[in-house]
Amino acid sequence: xxxxxxxxxxxRAALGPAGLVTDPDQIGSYxxxxxxxxxxxxxxxxxxxSTAEVAAVLRLCRDAGVAVVPQGGNTGLCGGAVPDASGxxxxxxxxxxxxxxxxxxxxxxxxxxxxxxxxxxQEAAAAAGRLFPLSLGSEGSATIGGTLxxxxxxxxxxxxxxxxxxxxxxxxxxPDGRVWHGLRGLRKDNTGYDLKHxxxxxxxxxxxxxxxxxxxxxxxxxxxxxxxxxPGPAAAVELIEVVRALAGDRLTGFEVMSRQSVAFVLAxxxxxxxxxxxxxxxxxxxxLSDTLPGAGLAxxxxxxxxxxxxxxxxxxxxxxxxxxxxxxxxxxxxxxSEAQNAxxxxxxxxxxxxxxxxxxxxxxxxxxxxxxLPGIRVVAYGHVGDGNLHYNLSKPVGSxxxxxxxxxxxxxxxxxxxxxxFAGSISAEHGIxxxxxxxxxxxxxxxxxxxxRGVKALLDPAGLMNPGKVLPAG
Length: 474
Prior knowledge:
FAD-bd_PCMH; alpha+beta; flavoprotein; single chain; FAD-bd_PCMH-like_sf
């Protein structure tokens, strides 16, 4: 009799019929990421409905020596929420834990369970006249737990920061089943170590986040959005300074995209069109927002663009004239990832370099990739204001998928070696997961890895929380 033979009846007793899924036809969607890049097997999927049930699951799995893989919306890009191929792990889905526990307008906070979908949290905040600012292309399926586990950033980091900046308190079930009740909605709390930051970005390797207190902000009542044609990434870096000097913290979003990125969207996404009659090398999507109605943001944006044209930073520009046009401009940016998949295998690299060095990084890395694989198509886009580029690769036209995939590690090294040369990070907002786990030993400071392993050993001495993710072996 195996450990899972005794574990599954105990889990069924603890969770009831709705909380345990073992039918192979029903668990398939939990075993593969949304892109189909990572797949595994599992002994079962558990779907607890409360923090107490999560605690029961972790206690039972610890006693049986069975590993647990926490999973939110399964929208990640690094395989961090997918089990291994052994079939002995248990996937813990937070999909039934979706409640808004409390919304405190005076304290500007919302307390939600980890399985709550990001879009539903945005809507709950809006219904109370508030804003929860995290915005992602996958916000209709990404969960709060998943965005915390990967420290997601999104398109509004310039103004509001990443999830690490948006969380005040956490409730976490530790690997031994104890519950840390850290749901404090305090802006000031200097009572020792700030433990919540251990779990944000840890990808479920230290415990399971079950609820969070998140910051809210005043609702946005004015917005202005522009789509700007640029001669290159150097112009984007200069343009953001022009806009920031005039708009201050009303600059909420500044996205940059190469022509190759936009061309894929125009070719494969329905209902989109090029705002300009001719193609341009690069584009920026600039958004200002304000809590004041009628704040005159279009005029501020027009002034900034006028200066940009005077300095030869912009080739063309259009300011969105209504919600439908603004949505169509954002669709050109948010459709890139899905559109690239239509071109075959997509090798995704989520990196950060200092903003000032983005132009040189792009030029040098593009050149190195072209030398390594002539005809390779670079799909570069991202949040240039915080230095985060999604530096993704598509195969040369007409080449075989398998041959391109076979060179994935080699091409990743080209990107990451260049990133390291510019004092950057090989993971900006998508996490480490399985995809980059073994690379950390080459690009991370050895002392940092030693400290991280020490934290892991303290909290999860048996190594049962999402094993094989984040930390390299050794």
